[in-house]
Amino acid sequence: VTSAIYLQGRDLRGAALACALAAAAAATAAGVALATGQVRATTTALAVTTVVAGCTWVAGGITAWLRQPENRTGPLMTITGFVLFASALAQANRALPFTLGLVVAAWPAALVGHLVLAFPDGRLHSRAERVVIGLAYLDVVVLQVLMLMFMGFEHVNGCPCPRNLLFVRDDMGLHSLLMGTERAIGFALAVAVFVMLVRRLRSASAPMRRAIVPVASTGLLTLGLYAVSAATANSAPALSRGFGAASGAALAIIPVAFLAGLFNARLARAGVSDLLVELQRMPGPGQLREALARVLGDRSLELVYWIPETEAWVGINGQPVDPYAEPERAVTVLDRGGRRIAALVHDPALRERQELLDAVSTAAGLSLENERLQAELRAQLDELTDSRARIVEAGDRARQRLERNLHDGAQQRFVALSMALGLMESRLRSDPEGAAELLSSAREDLRQGLDELRELARGLHPAVLTERGLAAALEALTAGSPVPVTILAIPEERLPENIEATAYFVVAEALTNVARYASATRVTVDIRCDGGKLAVEVRDDGIGGAEAGAGSGLRGLADRVAAVEGRLSVKSPRGGGTTVRAEMPCA
Amino acid sequence: MRTVLIVDDHASVRAIARAALGAAFSVVGEAADGSEALVLARQLRPDVVLLDVQLPDIDGFAVAAALAADDDPPVVVMMSSRDRAQFEPSLRESRVRAFIPKERLSASALADAIA
After folding, report:
1. Closest approach of A399 to chain B, Cα-based (Å)
2. Is-contact A365 A336, C-beta < 8 A?
3. Considering CB atoms only, which of B13, B19, B20 is closest to A415?
4. Quick one: pLDDT at residue B60?
5. How many Å apart are CA A323 and CA A301, to the nearest integer?
6. Neighbours of A184 (CB within 10 A)
7. Which of A90-99, A125-134, A194-203, A372-381 has the highest mean pLDDT?
8. Per residue in A477-520, pLDDT tens?
């Protein structure tokens, strides 16, 4: 009974039509049965109410099913309708339908309990709920059959009943015990359902509460009336019949409550028109969220915006956020013209009001797009401020490194040289041989100092890049790489100076990283200028796992590329090599 | 002859300093970093410690301060290849006797500094 029935489009419409036809056939058969006197005269009224209730349940179920195909409530309601039809057979005056009707007679009670607890999405949410509903089915299915086995119907309410096919032997004591047990368990479970519902209502948000109340009240009313009717069956039969009829009437009303709760259609229309009026007043930043929260009746509603450039969600102030951070909240992504623009983080109850969500997001589309642009602008400003600070810091760090290198390298050599020259001067006369020895070591110091200076100067800016362009500079750079480099393509023409320099440093930094971390055996460099865009790609076959996190050379490189309005991406799966790719304008 | 401990992380500087001072001082030891300098200074008890400011482990001024706290401390003379101006505040606060730019280091410069 609880297995989900998922159908889509034409299949669903077909299934709905089949159900509707089956229900019509069942109702017609019931009508014919009544007209041809196949129903016991004393219970005709009961048979009619039950069939009418079955019709409202099937109709309500099909409507819910068609409107929300993914929701189990619709199929469950439809099944309940058919079970009601079957239970009406208990009023027949022939043995087989009579017995069948008796077997399923108590099933609707369990089904109603199940539906009420599973409302609004048609799923039971906790272990306790599943246990209660499981016991309810066990109770109405198994105990009912056991009870029927020990009951003769000759004396019941003076009823001229047909034969009970399950009858084993007449044992009034055992029968009463079984019936009492079935009812006691049923009553206890009804109380449990009631307690669970009250607790859910207490902790529910406003929209959830609005959706649950009509269903819970009619459901509990029906179960309550049924319980009283069952409890008074022996002591006050007339009263019991009255409560039974009232319970049947209440049962017929439940589907209406379900539909009201599920759709809230009138409310939705009113809400959207309110929103449209409100949007006319051109809400300022943040007010759109307020307006949506009000219309959707969810105060906790949050609005986040999609930034396609960085493929990230941000809040209204441009700060990064993760809409999926809280698993108990639902996320609805809003598109406009096929592009993702925003997402609502909301109470899961709103999912059951998909039409309202759709209508609201359509109505708010333009305002959402405006706010998204503002959020994007703020995110860009933040990123700009951050990257500017990082570039300044990187410059400071580079100058520090330079001072250190000069101090430890060339300066140290020249200091030693100066000391040696001073010493030589004092020994020139007294110890000419010692002085000559000092001279040759001084020369060595000078040579090494010059080498260090040259290397330092090349690291600052390769002169060949300004003089002869990217191709020549990269040839010189890759010639010195410890890992063999293959250059697949480099534009021959000269590019703007800052673009050439950025492309050069992308390759230089990437090659430095390859030599240091990648354990690669080969590297390819591919630089192409197409349609005003320069793509620089350095790919190695190393161990991967590179990260462009804070403080890494790649972060600084990304800032550098961003400064010429380009974008750097790093793909570095573990064990899958590293690809550093920069794209920047080259016209 | 007064004894000297030379502290500098560059072997070439230590070698030249040893040669330059050799005539007027007795160089009793060489240390390549601050902790070695502290050990040798306390072990050899030289008259003068010629101390480079920038050492790989402990800063030269910290070494000087540690030595100054000892009983009967040696005379400390700092040297560096950087300008004196950069160290002026540290020099004022410390009990260092003198500062000699490395390129001007000679026996007579050291003798003048501790005179």
Report:
1. 16
2. yes
3. B13
4. 92
5. 11
6. 12
7. A125-134
8. 888 788 999 999 999 889 998 899 999 999 998 998 898 888 89
Q: Chain A residues with CB inside 8 Å of B102's CB?
A: 415, 418-419
Q: Which of B19, B81, B106 sits opposite A415 (nearest CB)?
A: B81
pLDDT attached to residue A203: 73
Chain centroid to Cα A522, Å, comes to 42
Chain A residues closer than 8 Å to B19 by CB: 423, 438
Cβ–Cβ gap B81/A412 under 8 Å: yes
**Cis, bond preceding A97 (omega within 30 deg of 0):** no
Interface TM-score (ipTM) > 0.85: no
Distance CA A185, CA A146 (A): 15
Predicted TM-score of the model (pTM): 0.46
Q: Residue A411: list chain B partners with CB under 8 A.
A: 81
DSSP A38-107: -B-GGGHHHHHHHHHHHHHHHHHHHHHHHH-TT-THHHHHHHHHHHHHHHHGGGBSSHHHHHHHHHTTTH
Are the Cβ atoms of B16 and A411 closer than 8 angstroms? no
Q: How far is A517 from chain B (nearest CA, A)?
A: 26
| B11 in A contact zone (CB under 8 Å) | no
Q: Flag the least confident range among A147-161, A296-310, B93-107.
A: A147-161
- C-alpha closest to that of A302 among A260, A261, A330: A330
Within 10 angstroms of residue A484's Cβ, the number of other Cβ atoms is: 11
> Mind listing the pLDDT tens digit for each residue in A124-153?
878 899 999 999 999 989 988 888 888 766
C-alpha distance from residue A537 to each of A319, A557, A570, B2 (Å) = 31, 13, 10, 65
Assess B12–A contact: CB distance below 8 Å, yes or no.
yes
| Among A510, A572, A507, CA closest to A542 | A572
pLDDT for B57-91, tens place per residue? Answer: 899 999 999 999 998 999 999 999 888 888 888 88
pLDDT at A266 exceeding the cut of 50: no
Distance CA A558, CA A553 (A): 9
